[in-house]
Amino acid sequence: MTASVEPVQGVLTGQNSLHPHLYLGTSGWSYADWQGAFYPAKMPANQRLGFYAEQYRSVEINSTFYGMPSLKTVQSWRTQSPEGFVFAAKFPRVITHQARLVNCGGLATTFIETMQELGDRLGPLLLQLPPSMSADSLDDLGRFLEGLPDGLVYAVEVRHRSWLTEEFADLLKRWQVSMVLTCGEHMGRFWRATSRVAYIRWLGVHDAFENYASPKIERDEEIAWWSARMAHFLDRGGTIFGYANNNYEGFSPRTVRRVESELARQLGSAPQ
Question: What's one Pfam family here (predicted)?
């Protein structure tokens, strides 16, 4: 990857009722608990993505973390989604957690080429590092980023606080890679932009709730904190991808709507 690469233009265009450079959604879409709460009660599982894509502008794919998707699967995601819809996807754990970014360039290339079957629906590719991986691996990360192909949007999520240094930020800035901004158990919440694309994950605490059929808590103060910074970033010409996890409030579709509502207030516009 060459320095100062610009993200794929298809990701940064299109219209949104709130802001053209805002892509909000949930972490995953295939949850049985959502049946009757978000999806129609009798909707077949193979129709969920199409329904979801009518409600939101983007989704974060979690299944790619657990295994390399097939070309057929990725092609079906594209077929089921409308023009303008964008997928974010995690790199497989065999790359991040097993190989720990070392000697896995071939696997990374295979994953990226497979995800490119999404065409203009391909958004950021998320490199989620394990909690045990500290900033001692900075050089490994640098070599991995250098080997990535140009023309795509990449984001790195760290889960060890040793990474929160200027050296790490400078590395991401060099390659125009987003530092993933999280609100969860590992890193708390923080804001640091390292590219013109911000990638936000509202995570909460893993397995915090017994089911995900309805909201369990409301994080008003946190959502207001994030929304103020998001509005400022958008006003300055940035692009935001933001994804809510079920563990954040108990029902991520509701969380997304709450973020939209507060962000609309911060931007001084009415949600549509």
Answer: DUF72
> CATH assignment of 9-267?
3.20.20.410
Domain boundaries, the chain: 9-267
Choose among 150, 217, 214, 193: nearest CA to 1: 150
Distances (CA, A) of 185 to 67, 97, 101, 254: 25, 19, 24, 21
Token output for 169: 């930020």
Q: Which token pair is 70?
A: 């097939």
pLDDT digits (tens, 9 = 90+) for 197-253: 999 999 999 999 999 999 999 999 999 999 999 999 999 999 999 999 999 999 999
Q: Which candidate, 200, 199, 201, 192, places its Cα nearest to that of 171?
A: 192
Q: Which 3 state secondary structure label does DSSP give 172?
A: helix
Distance of CA 64 to the CA centre of its chain: 13
The phi and psi torsions of 190 (rounded to 5 degrees) equal: -160, 160
Give the predicted TM-score (pTM) of the model: 0.93
